[in-house]
C-alpha cells in the first residue's frame, strides 16, 4: 500500500481539499458523492481489527525508506522508463485536449467563453506543466472562478483528475535523480532514551554523490506534498527551520511517514528519538551528527 492509494484517511482528505484537488469517485461508496468517503479507519472498524491500520502504517513506513538506485535500475531500464513517461504525458495531454474540446462544444459552443474555457483548462495547464511541472494556485482559482460564473454547470471532474495525474507524472523524472543519488540505507539501533519508549533507530542514507550535488537546487526533487522543488538533502532531512537554522523541520520524506503512522508505529519502536541522517560520497554528514560518546554513534 502507498500513501497515494485509496481509500484515504481523514487528514489526507483535508489536504486534498485544501490544495483544490479532486477526490476520486472511487473513494465514495457506490461511486456517489452524495455518500461519505470510505476512510481507512472505517474499513478497519468494519473488520473490527486495528491490525489493518498497524499493517498499513508499517507498509507506508517501509515504502518511505526505500530510496536507492536499485529502484531505477540500469541505464537502459532508466531510459525506457523515462521514454514511457514522455509518451504517457503526450497521450494524457492529447486526451485532455479532446475532453476539453468536447465539453466546450457541448456547453459553450461558438462563444468567447468557450475559448476562455479551453485556455484555462488546457492551454495554460500544458504551458505550466511543461515549464514548471506544476499547476500554480492562481490558475486553479481562475478555473474555479470561471466555472462559478457560468450559467451552466460543466462536469469537469474527469478533466481535473487527468490534470492531477499529468502533474504527478511530470515530476517523476526528478525522483530518478533522487534514487540514483542514494547508494544504500543503513539502519542501526540506538540505546533507549530516558524519555523514550523502548528501542529507537538511526536511519542513515549513504549517497554516491558530492555534498554540492545533494544541495544543488537544479538537482532537486518535488513530491505531491510540496509545490516547490527541494534539494535532495532537504527532501530527505527536512527544510531548515525558519527560526533556528541549526535545526530542521519535521517535513523530510521519511519523517513525515513516521509521524503520519506514529499512532501505530510507536507500538513497535520509539518514533520520537529515531534519527534520520544523510552522508555524501565521502561519508561526510550533511548536517551535524552525534559525537562518538553518544549512544547513536
Shape: globular
What is the CA–CA distance across the termini?
Answer: 33 Å
- Number of continuous helical runs: 12
**Strand order of the main beta sheet, please?**
1-2-3
Considering the chains and any ligands shown, give keywords for the structure.
single chain; 297 residues; mainly alpha; globular; disordered N terminus
In short:
It is built from twelve helices and three strands. It is mainly α and 297 residues long.
Secondary structure blueprint with pairings:
Blueprint: H1 10-18, H2 40-46, H3 51-65, H4 75-107, H5 112-132, H6 137-148, H7 157-170, H8 172-180, E1 182-190, E2 200-207, H9 211-214, H10 232-237, H11 253-260, H12 262-265, E3 275-279
Parallel strand pairs: 2-3
Antiparallel strand pairs: 1-2
Helix pairs in contact: 3-11, 4-5, 4-7, 5-6, 5-7
Describe this structure in words.
The structure is a single chain. The chain is mainly alpha-helical and 297 residues long. The protein has 3 domains: 10-71, no CATH class; 75-173, no CATH class; 181-279, no CATH class. The chain has 12 helices and 3 strands. It has a 3-stranded mixed sheet with strand order 1-2-3. Helix 4 packs antiparallel against helix 7 and helix 5 runs antiparallel to helix 6 (137-148). The two termini are 33 Å apart.
Amino acid at each position: 500500500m502507498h500513501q497515494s492509494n485509496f481509500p484515504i484517511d481523514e487528514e489526507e482528505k483535508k489536504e486534498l481539499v485544501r490544495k483544490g484537488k479532486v477526490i476520486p469517485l472511487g473513494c465514495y461508496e457506490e461511486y456517489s458523492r452524495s455518500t461519505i468517503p470510505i476512510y481507512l479507519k472505517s474499513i478497519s472498524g468494519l473488520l473490527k481489527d486495528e491490525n489493518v491500520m498497524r499493517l498499513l502504517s508499517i507498509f507506508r513506513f517501509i515504502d518511505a525508506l526505500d530510496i536507492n538506485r536499485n529502484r531505477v535500475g540500469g541505464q537502459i531500464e532508466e531510459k525506457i522508463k523515462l521514454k514511457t513517461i514522455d509518451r504517457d504525458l503526450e497521450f494524457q495531454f492529447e486526451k485532455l485536449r479532446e475532453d476539453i474540446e468536447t465539453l466546450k462544444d457541448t456547453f459553450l459552443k461558438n462563444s468567447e467563453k468557450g475559448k476562455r474555457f479551453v485556455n484555462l483548462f488546457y492551454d495554460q495547464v500544458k504551458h505550466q506543466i511543461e515549464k514548471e511541472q506544476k499547476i500554480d494556485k492562481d490558475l486553479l482559482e481562475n478555473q474555479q472562478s470561471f466555472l462559478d460564473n457560468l450559467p451552466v454547470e460543466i462536469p469537469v471532474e474527469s478533466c481535473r483528475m487527468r490534470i492531477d495525474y499529468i502533474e504527478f507524472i511530470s515530476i517523476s523524472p526528478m525522483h530518478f535523480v533522487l534514487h540514483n543519488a542514494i547508494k544504500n540505507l543503513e539502519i542501526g539501533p540506538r540505546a533507549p532514551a530516558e524519555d523514550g519508549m523502548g528501542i529507537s533507530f538511526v536511519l542513515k542514507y549513504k549517497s554516491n554523490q558530492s555534498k554540492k550535488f545533494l544541495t544543488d537546487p537544479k538537482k532537486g526533487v518535488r513530491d505531491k506534498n510540496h509545490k516547490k522543488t527541494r534539494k535532495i538533502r532537504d527532501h530527505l532531512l527536512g527544510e531548515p527551520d525558519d527560526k533556528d537554522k541549526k535545526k530542521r523541520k519535521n517535513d523530510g520524506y521519511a519523517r513525515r511517514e513516521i509521524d503520519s503512522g506514529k499512532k501505530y508505529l510507536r507500538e513497535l519502536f520509539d518514533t520520537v528519538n529515531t534519527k534520520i541522517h544523510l552522508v555524501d560520497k565521502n561519508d561526510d554528514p550533511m548536517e551535524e551528527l552525534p559525537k562518538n560518546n553518544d549512544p547513536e554513534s
